[in-house]
Amino acid sequence: MKHVTRKPHYRDHPLHVSMKRVPVGPSFRAQRVHAAIVGQIAACVARGVRVVHYSVQHDHLHLLVEADDKKEAARRLQLLFSRIAFAVNRVSHRHGSLFRDRHHRRALSSPSETRNVLVYLFFNARKHDIQHGRATNASFELDPMTSAPWFDAWHPVARPPPEAFARARAPRASPPTATPRTWMASEGWLRAGGPIAFHECPAIPRFLHR
Predict the structure, then answer these.
(1) Mean pLDDT value across the chain
(2) Which of 28, 34, 74, 118 has most Cβ atoms within 10 angstroms of its Cβ?
């Protein structure tokens, strides 16, 4: 990311945040690494960092975050990513920088943008599998390396099977994410297509290049 001044942030707009690791590093979807990342998300949420949803991919993270202003977003994301880097380095027995540079973030100012990002986060691994011709039955299961197992606004008919939630949530007893406060992230997105169906597959947003 270029070091340019970020735009002011409007508190009612959730942020889609993405952060990519350095080219040589551990897979974020390795069990111990994933556990370390989610543990730090939960710890930072307890300290007031409002991570509403997340998606842990092989070499990058996607987050849906709320903040009151630009200064709060910067400060709390810096805390989150520094703690994640320390925890991942510890469990991976490595040293040095983990993340490339600055995170990318984009304010979501409409219900359709917000719904699209939710679909993108929950089914990001499915998209990658289909793109690279490696889709399997697992590609169409509930992804335990996202916050999808804690999501409760699935389509009443096209929703994951009940047993999938228990498998994907284990061993965590409570959600590691924050309850959304913004209208856009809590209910506004429903106006752009209704509840999310489990068979959906995201397109690549134009503002992302991965």
Answers:
(1) 90
(2) 118
Q: How many angstroms separate the Cα of 89 from the Cα of each of 22, 32, 109?
A: 12, 11, 35
User: Is the pTM above the cut of 0.85?
Assistant: yes
Q: What are the CA-CA distances from residue 30 to residues 22, 57, 91, 100, 129 (Å)?
A: 16, 10, 11, 19, 17
**Consecutive H or E run containing 164:** helix 162-169
If DSSP codes are grouped into helix, strand and coil, which group holds residue 154? strand
Beta-ladder partners of 19: 61
Residue type present at position 18: S
Report which residue type is found at 3. Answer: H
| DSSP one-letter code for 180 | P
Q: What is the predicted pLDDT for the residue at 65?
A: 98
Q: What percent of the chain has pLDDT over 70?
A: 92
User: pLDDT tens across 109-141, in order?
Assistant: 999 999 999 999 999 888 777 777 776 766 678
- Of residues 53, 7, 9, 47, the one with CA closest to residue 145: 53
| pLDDT tens track for 50-92 | 999 999 999 999 999 999 999 999 999 999 999 999 999 999 9
DSSP per position, 3-41: --PPPP--TTS-EEEEEEB-SSS--TTSHHHHHHHHHHH
Spatial contact of 80 and 44, defined as CB atoms under 8 Å apart? yes
Burial (Cβ within 10 Å: 0-12, 13-18, ≥19) of residue 77: buried
Residue 31: closest CA among 136, 142, 170: 170
